[in-house]
Structures are given as structure tokens and as C-alpha cells.
Write a structure and sequence with these properties.
about 140 residues, alpha/beta
């Protein structure tokens, strides 16, 4: 399957999913990659610490604006990446038609990506590292 539309979901859409969105866009510049949050801080920019962590690897997420996940986004998406089993379940329970296309970003390593919101730089760097691994692990399946 050609996964042309890739959706990344977390809770607030200001930390993990913007970082994952940017790294997926970098890896797949020909794809439509977008993100949203289950309880998004709608209208907010990415967390300053997320921006800093991404700047350190030459990726700019300064223009990110948080959006609330909705049905239309899930319909448009060919594949959906969430950060934890709980998020996968929450998406599939609310929008049952999405079953079968929602996966943890770290599905292959069976990890969840802990929420770094309101925590220090080490937690953001851990999240970024896990996101990078998740993006890398999906490469054989997305190409």
C-alpha cells in the first residue's frame, strides 16, 4: 500500500506529534504528513523545548499550530501513528472505522513515547530519540 497521507497523534499536539510530523516530513518529503491531538491545545505553537530539540537537529517546527483530531483527518489518513497503546485504543474506540490503520509509532520496538510536556530537556530528548527510532523502524513498510 502507498501511504501517501500520514497522520501523527498525541495528546496536546505541541510536543511529540509535531516532532514526529517534522521528522516524517524530512524522511518522506513526497508525502502529506500532518498531526493533531486528542486533547489538543488548539492554536498553540509547539512547546519551546520541542522547538529547541528539533532546532538542534536542523529541523524547524516554529510554524506548527496545534489542531484537534477529528473524523475528517482520520478519513484522509492512510496510516495513523500514536504515541501509546492508550492513544491507539482511544482513537479506535471513538472512530471505529479507523481500526487497522492506527499504530504506535514505536510499534516495532513495542515502546511508548512518554509525554515530555512540562518536563525538562532530558525528557524531550528521550521523546525525540524514540520518535527517530520509530520513524526509522517504519521505513521498510512506508517505502
Amino acid at each position: 500500500m502507498n501511504f501517501q497521507n500520514i497522520l501523527v497523534v498525541c495528546i496536546g499536539n505541541i510536543c511529540r506529534s509535531p516532532m514526529a510530523e517534522a521528522l516524517l516530513k524530512q524522511s518522506y518529503p513526497d508525502r502529506n504528513v500532518f498531526s493533531a491531538g486528542l486533547e489538543a491545545l488548539v492554536g498553540h505553537t509547539a512547546d519551546p523545548m520541542a522547538i529547541e530539540c528539533m532546532n538542534e537537529v536542523g529541523v524547524d517546527i516554529n510554524t506548527h499550530v496545534a489542531r484537534l483530531l477529528d473524523r475528517d483527518m482520520l478519513i484522509e489518513a492512510d496510516i495513523v501513528f500514536a504515541m501509546s497503546n492508550e492513544q491507539v485504543r482511544a482513537i479506535e474506540e471513538r472512530w471505529s472505522f479507523s481500526k487497522g490503520k492506527v499504530f504506535k509509532l514505536c510499534h516495532w520496538s513495542r515502546n511508548s513515547i512518554p509525554d515530555p510536556y512540562r518536563k525538562g530537556k532530558p525528557e524531550f530528548l528521550l521523546a525525540k530519540s524514540l520518535i527517530e527510532k520509530g520513524v526509522s523502524d517504519w521505513r521498510p513498510y512506508l517505502n
